[in-house]
Amino acid sequence: MEMDKGEHVGNNGDRFVHRLKELTDEEKKRLESQNMRIIPKLKAAKLEKDAKRHWDIFYKRNETKFFRDRHWTTREFQELINFDPDERIVYLELGCGVGNMVFPLIEEGFSNFYFYACDFSPRAVEFVKRNKLYDENRMKAFCADLTTDDLFENVTENSVDIASLIFVLSSIDPTHWSHVATVAYKALKPGGMLLFRDYGRYDMAQLRFKAGHKISENFYMRQDGTRSYYFTEEELLKLFMEAGFEIIMNTYVQRRTVNFKEGIDVPRIFVQGKYRKPLEGKSVTTCER
């Protein structure tokens, strides 16, 4: 497939593009079949009410073994390494899980970083605190619900240099997204950067859902009761601009997940963004291409 202007291929083969995947007829039929049985509103409301419990059960069952450590972050987000090594950097991981992003950064050095790590699940936060790399002199882990303002019981507004929201927003009901974006904006210093990655529209995982798992358009319930949304870049552009951010990068990432030993070769679609809190009040769209 030819690349359009402004699109490129990363060193690892990932394709950064600004267009939706074109669905085959079979894929269109799969999406249509999901509408045969939609989750009732009462059950959807219960999923929202029990969201914390479902994530706590998830971590009870999987402990620290489910998600791989994210060693790709310094490759994708150069903002993590473009600092004077003597400059103190405050980093906030919004939705830290069991520390799959923050602990690889600690292993790589980052001795000038102070880390805040928060999660919805008390069990996940406990796993972070039990990690052998957890050092209270360099890091603080705590529970926070990003759909409220309780983050600011532990983090001062306008104090964070870099925040990340990696595979987190998709698990939150769309009615709360604007509040989550506002929380991130308030936490960052002027000039601070929010790093973002999540599931993209028509990702393989979305196409695999059967009838009975769809909550609303592009929002689904997994077997374990956790939820997942699949974004377009236009949705994210609107969301973060309305929160006040400058749009530095906002794109789809197409990649293949390959495991030759297990015979797996799966196309994945993610959305990736970099959103900056402006030094002055007015935001300007300045997308990287």
Explain the overall architecture.
By secondary structure, the protein is of the alpha/beta class. Helix content is 26%, strand content 27%. The chain has nine helices and twelve strands. The chain has a nine-stranded mixed β-sheet. A three-stranded antiparallel β-sheet has the order 8-9-10, covered by helices on one side. The chain is globular and about 55 Å long. The two termini are 18 Å apart. S-adenosyl-L-methionine-dependent methyltransferase. It comes from Parnassius apollo.
Amount of beta strand: 25-35%
Summed over residues and divided by their number, the pLDDT gives a mean of 87
Secondary-structure element string:
EEHHHHEHEHEEHEHEEEHEE
Amino- and carboxy-terminal Cα gap:
18 Å
Instruction: Find the count of extended strands (DSSP E, 2+ residues).
Output: 12
Q: Strands across the major sheet, in which order?
A: 1-2-11-12-7-6-3-4-5
Helix/strand-derived category reads: alpha/beta
What's the shape? Answer: globular
Unreliable residue runs: none
The biggest beta sheet reads: 9 strands, mixed
- Multimerization status: single chain
- Which percent range fits the helix content? 25-40%
Gyration radius over CA:
19 Å
Number of helices: 9
